[in-house]
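Design review, sub-item: ligand-bound model
Attendees: FS, YL, KQ
YL presented the inputs for the L-homoserine complex:
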Amino acid sequence: MIKVRIPATSANIGSGFDSLGLAVSMYNYVEVEECEGIHITSTDSVPIPTDENNLIYKTSKYLFDLCGKSLKGLKIRQTNNIPMARGLGSSSACIVSGLLAANQLMGEPLSQDEIINIAAAMEGHPDNSTPALIGGLVTSVLEDKTVHYVKQEIKDDLRFVTIIPDFELKTSLARSALPKEVTHKEAVYNLSRAALMSVSLYSGNYQNLRVAAQDKLHQPYRLKLIKGADRVFDICYGLGAYAAYISGAGSTLMAIVDKKIEGFEEKLRDDLNYLGLSAWQIHSLSIDNIGTTVIIDKETY
Ligand code: HSE
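KQ shared the predicted structure:
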């Protein structure tokens, strides 16, 4: 059996729309083995497709077809800790696990970079799938089906406080809310901040993160779809966060907080409750600098 552990990811980091992303310490687990037919189960109560429409199965089958190999069928067991349609890379986690499991089952015909390229092409943008695969903070560009990227390991002195609303926000809807064109001024606003975000996170210049997370490409439009988000950002900054931004396409909000700050999550919980947002979850996560791990369980392989 092949056991895959995939981290959640937080894309954009405010200003780096479709180009910056980082992996955090929340994980999905997927166990895969080849068999006759399709047998898909989950270890939790999260509803998942259990037929050929399952994204992990579809992705594995796609890779087998791409490599010209036939797939008898798959037994898949999923543990779904990453909430779906919340901006934490749940679909990337499925794609990455499907690709890595299939590659392993075929005897690893594809390199890591080839997997990175295929995952980004399937997602349409590389900012979730690449950090999900390799961990850390990843700056990437997808051009002509190739991902040009740099991974930077981030020091473990930050908490990524993940604030998950009690409603989904589909990426397709969150993307359809964006304007078709932006001005030259807005483009400069974002590119300077995205560059500042990448290098400041890596170098520990955290005092820059608040300015670096500002953005004019997507957050102003998506904030309207996440009722209460503005207030939550104000609360996070009031409690001393370095930065607060919409994780990926939302609905999750992310606050970057120094590990030395005590009581942030407790006070945030009280404030969310006061705002009537008691159903919103708070998870205190760390950077994941490793990415997806694959273990071969020889007893069953
Ligand atoms: N960069 C993407 C977006 C991430 O913001 O739409 C969502 O998967």
